[in-house]
């Protein structure tokens, strides 16, 4: 077995969206950067998560929209063209090839080592390469871990033998199962149930809790999505856990699922959308005093808190702050700037909203759930505000009453909730549910991050007739309730 070694400024472990951006920004800061990847550059997001799942969902949402437009409704009746949808999904997953990303990496002067990387003591990473060799990388300044997550399975008898679907199967499958059971009530469950029900599966969603779908969002969001999923034909069962799974006839036969209420269910495939576990079991954490399989807790500059000397950073899903691509990329941009500044001995601008501070992780993490209807949110929910003792005015508005919504769809159903800090008069939380609301999310994010007083929002005039006039209606509701004239 041959072994080589090299020294560089920064080593990044994992080339998903977070790792790629971290390597890019450290390279942009003038540091020599090497990235290590075991599978495909682009990570889970490009190949088994965001990109293929949104490609599966886009025709579902577009068809639902078309069916609400008078004159278009009849043209949009009928089933989806499944082969065309799956072919488009393949395109959007770049046919599971990462050549474009390899080119991009070269264009930003980041070197790539393909193979499984592990920490091997402070500032050291050893990579087992596909040809049976090893490469030892020594980082002068920093190692960044961006190894992401894998599916977190519950501890269930018989689970391995049934070959359950994970997000990888749910986004890359080549056939439509006649009956699909989905375990979980989070984002993956909601999005994949929406997609596969529309593609022709009979979907049953098994949710262990009673608080509804997407329990971390405003309750009305989960209720509206649940209503729509039921209307689309899915069977939703709350307070229902799985206690056992078995393919009685062996591989390829249906799965019998035993439920906590004593009943059972038969499906052709079972998807576990039961959350994520850190992809850290085999990355040498024990060599730097950490526990394999743990999440990596970080400070506000993304340095791993339990490792001395400040050379180890963690960005993206693996730090468990906000498991979304855009937020991992945000973290990577900041961590890259931090590593660059520290390497040059420059002071950090780490005050609230400073260039080296991770303020948005806690104040303004945006998310779109691409269900039908879509759910968009950023900042606090009412429950979080209550839990943290944050005093807020809650302004609700029925988006269906906005002129632009009536133009968008016949019988538009949607709801907005805006949380305004009771003392400072700034927007601190926004949730929109309804068709076409995803493009309103950036305005909400800007409203929160700019911390402008709502009085200034009166000057941000939304065009008529667009759904964005919901902002004006919210301001009017807030003003009228307070008995103000402006
Ligand atoms: C079904 C689904 C849909 C999603 N949709 C969205 C969405 O629409 N929008 C959104 O913002 N987020 C979405 N997410 C979340 C998003 O996929 C993650 O937040 C994102 O992929 C995290 O990026 P990351 O770089 O931290 O990790 P990952 O994307 O998981 O990348 C980690 C990389 O590290 C590599 N790696 C791991 N260990 C090693 C090792 N030891 N050596 C070398 N390489 C290693 C892996 O091979 C991988 O390429 C979705 C998730 C799922 C499951
Ligand atoms: N559009 C998007 O932004 C998007 C899309 C998909 C995923 N994601 C991200 O990916 C992450 C993972 O999504 P997810 O849906 O897998 O996780 P999640 O944490 O959102 O939901 C997990 C669900 O599984 C349930 N669950 C957990 N353990 C269980 C068990 N043993 N039995 C039954 N149910 C169980 C939970 O109660 C919850 O309903 C999320 O944090 C999300 O932010 C984002």
From TrEMBL:
Keywords: FAD, Flavoprotein. Residues 9-327 form the FAD/NAD(P)-binding domain. Residues 365-471 form the Pyridine nucleotide-disulphide oxidoreductase dimerisation domain. Its cofactor is FAD. Transmembrane segments: none annotated. It comes from the Bacteria. It holds the Pfam family Pyr_redox_2. SUPFAM superfamilies: FAD/NAD(P)-binding domain (SSF51905), FAD/NAD-linked reductases, dimerisation (C-terminal) domain (SSF55424). The keyword Flavoprotein applies. Belongs to the class-I pyridine nucleotide-disulfide oxidoreductase family. This is NAD(P)/FAD-dependent oxidoreductase.
């Amino acid at each position: 077995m041959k072994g080589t070694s090299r020294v560089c400024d920064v080593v990044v472990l994992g080339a998903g969206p977070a790792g790629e951006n971290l390597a890019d920004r450290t390279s942009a800061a003038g540091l020599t950067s090497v990235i290590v990847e075991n599978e495909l550059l682009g990570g889970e997001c490009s190949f088994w998560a965001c990109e293929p799942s949104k490609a599966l969902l886009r025709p579902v949402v577009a068809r639902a929209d078309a069916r609400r437009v008078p004159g278009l409704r009849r043209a949009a009746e009928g089933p989806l063209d499944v082969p065309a949808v799956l072919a488009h999904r393949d395109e959007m997953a770049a046919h599971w090839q990462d050549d474009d990303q390899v080119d991009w990496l070269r264009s930003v002067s980041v070197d790539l080592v393909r193979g499984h990387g592990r920490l091997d003591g402070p500032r050291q990473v050893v990579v087992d390469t596909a040809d049976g060799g090893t490469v030892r990388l020594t980082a002068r300044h920093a190692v960044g871990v961006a190894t992401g997550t894998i599916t977190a399975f519950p501890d269930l008898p018989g689970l391995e033998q049934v070959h359950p679907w994970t997000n990888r199967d749910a986004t890359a499958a080549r056939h439509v199962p006649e009956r699909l059971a989905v375990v979980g009530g989070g984002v993956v469950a909601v999005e994949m149930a929406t997609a596969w029900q529309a593609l022709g599966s009979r979907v049953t969603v098994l949710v262990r809790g009673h608080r509804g779908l997407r329990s971390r969002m405003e309750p009305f969001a989960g209720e509206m999505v649940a209503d729509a999923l039921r209307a689309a034909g899915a069977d939703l069962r709350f307070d229902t856990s799985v206690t056992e799974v078995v393919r009685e006839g062996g591989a390829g036969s249906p799965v019998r699922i035993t439920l906590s209420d004593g009943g059972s269910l038969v499906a052709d495939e079972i998807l576990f959308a039961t959350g994520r576990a850190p992809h850290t079991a085999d990355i040498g954490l024990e060599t730097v005093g950490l526990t394999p399989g743990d999440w990596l807790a970080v400070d506000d500059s993304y340095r791993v808190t339990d490792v001395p000397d400040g050379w180890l950073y963690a960005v993206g899903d693996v730090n468990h702050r906000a498991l979304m691509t855009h937020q991992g990329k945000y973290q990577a941009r900041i961590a890259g700037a931090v590593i660059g500044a520290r390497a040059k001995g420059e002071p950090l601008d780490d005050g609230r909203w400073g260039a080296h501070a991770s303020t948005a992780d806690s104040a303004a993490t945006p998310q779109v759930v691409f269900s039908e209807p879509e759910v968009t949110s950023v900042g606090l929910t009412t429950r979080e505000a209550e839990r943290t003792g944050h005093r807020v005015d809650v302004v609700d508005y029925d988006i269906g009453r906005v002129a632009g919504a009536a133009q968008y769809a016949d019988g538009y159903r949607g709801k907005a909730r805006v949380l305004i800090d009771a003392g400072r008069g700034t927007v601190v939380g926004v949730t929109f549910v309804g068709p076409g609301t995803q493009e309103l999310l950036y305005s909400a994010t800007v409203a929160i991050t700019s911390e402008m007083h709502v009085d200034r929002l009166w000057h941000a005039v939304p065009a008529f007739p667009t759904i964005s006039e919901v902002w004006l209606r919210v301001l009017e509701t807030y003003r009228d309730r307070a008995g103000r004239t402006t």
